[in-house]
Amino acid sequence: MPPSMIMHRRRLLIGSAALLATIPSSRILAASSAGAEMRQPGLDEDVLRHLAAAMDRHVEARLMSGAVWAIEQDGELHVATAGTFEMGEGRPMARDTIFRVASITKPVTALLAMMLVEEGRLSLDGPVKDLLPELAEPRVLRSIDGELDDTQPAHRPITLRHLLTMTFGLGAIMEFPPRYPIQLAMQEAGIAPNWVLPRLTADEYMTRLGELPLAAHPGERFLYNNGLDVAGILIERAEGRSLGEVMRERIFEPLGMVDTGFWVPREKLDRLPPQYGPDFAAGTGETVKYGPERGINFAAPPPLESGAGGLVTTIDDYLAFQRLMLNGGVHEGKRLISEASLAEMTRDQLQPQHRNDPHAAFFMEDGGASWGLGVSVTLDRVHPWMTPGRYGWNGGYGTTAYVDPEKRLIGAFFSQQIMSSPSAPEAHRDFWSHAYRAVP
């Protein structure tokens, strides 16, 4: 790869943030949903051993400290771990490790929004201005690189669909280093997409966002990320409660997701490992620890519960969410959301001009995917694991999770290694390639 491209990818993450031998250290924790141990009739055990060996190699190369992953097909579940909590030392990674999962929060926020749409508490295509008056009369830049005062009235009002498809007009602008006035203004306001979540209250966030012009007319351009934060705030205002409270009542408690939320209570902090990533500030590529001093702190309630990227969870909790999706909205015989709402959420909602936009292409999985409502939707098999109709997403803190209705497959891989470019890390590619080889 040319040095210029390497530098470009490094800058991209800074702006967009914010993967047959013995198995020396991986621990395979296999069990079916019904509780049977070890034997997985539908999963190829040789492939699973190769997968574990590949993850051990990533740990030995210090590309990650540790990881937990899961593959399930029709109730046959394989869970395994590799590495340690601390880079190169400490206790072994455990199945109940709590991870900061970043953008795989988006599907959860979108599912909750669709629940409220079903009940008439939100409208998918009605204007959001009654609950978000900051967006009542948006102005739009005449050119995405134009001066902030060179604007025109928006062609149409902003809707929840625009927020969930990330086409409402503001988000990640893929020009690095940032130089467009709107990019710099978003950074100054503290609402630019980044690996550090916004340190603002919901009202402060909306005030600052509302003071800026939109970079595109609602519905006309895909700009990643911010739409899901705004959707989370819309949910809060519709319900009169925090996003975490509504998620807990409507999703986490019904599904038994006991370790999921927007922060980790004191009694569980020993299950939250350090976060690692490249030293972007120094530009050396050296792996460093990201804690409160670098803006990543999940040990206390955040000022904004980020619907775009703020959740912490465990592999088993997130599997429960994925099973709900795969099972058409039914959990243990009880329907939580209609099949029609899930179908709307997981269908392609974009047009070719959205997907081909230079500011969107980085989020379209090498040209093989599009977006539904809060989820990436696979269109073409540009990689062996990309079955058309598969949906889910990746998290910049080192996570990936997808549901494949055709193969009745769910998979999730959690690490604590911040991604070093918008392209999937080698560990993610190894996980998905082995997962699809392991299933019939």
Fill in the keyword field for this structure:
440 residues; Beta-lactamase; alpha+beta; 9-stranded antiparallel β-sheet
What is the terminal-to-terminal distance?
A: 36 Å
Number of E-state strands: 17
The general outline is: globular
CATH architecture term of the largest domain: 3-Layer(aba) Sandwich
Rounded mean pLDDT is 91
CATH topology of the largest domain: Beta-lactamase
CATH top level of the largest domain is Alpha Beta
Work out the helicity level: 25-40%
Superfamily (CATH H level) name of the largest domain? DD-peptidase/beta-lactamase superfamily
Q: How many helices does DSSP assign?
A: 12
Order of helices and strands: HEHEEEEHEEHHHHHEEEHEEHHEEEEEH
InterPro entries: Beta-lactam-related (IPR001466), Beta-lactam/transpept-like (IPR012338), Diverse_Enzym_Activities (IPR050789), TAT_signal (IPR006311)
Keywords: Signal
Protein name: Beta-lactamase
Pfam family, one: Beta-lactamase
What do you see in this structure?
- InterPro entries: Beta-lactam-related, Beta-lactam/transpept-like, Diverse_Enzym_Activities, TAT_signal.
- Residues 53-417 form the Beta-lactamase-related domain.
- This is Beta-lactamase.
- Keywords: Signal.
- It comes from Nitratireductor basaltis.
- This protein is α+β, with helices and mostly antiparallel strands and 440 residues long.
- The chain folds into 2 domains: 20-104 and 245-438, DD-peptidase/beta-lactamase superfamily (Beta-lactamase); 109-241, 3-Layer(aba) Sandwich (Beta-lactamase).
- The chain is 29% helix and 17% strand.
- It contains 12 helices and 17 strands.
- The protein has helices at residues 3-16, 45-60, 106-118, 160-164, 181-189, 202-210, 226-239, 243-255, 315-326, 339-345, 352-355, 426-438, and strands at residues 27-30, 66-73, 76-86, 89-92, 99-100, 139-141, 151-153, 275-278, 287-290, 312-313, 330-331, 334-335, 369-371, 376-378, 391-395, 399-404, 409-415.
- Strands 1, 2, 3, 4, 13, 14, 15, 16 and 17 form a 9-stranded antiparallel β-sheet that branches.
- Helix 3 (106-118) packs across helix 7 and helix 3 crosses helix 8.
- It is globular.
- Residues 1-25 and 30-40 have low confidence and may be disordered.
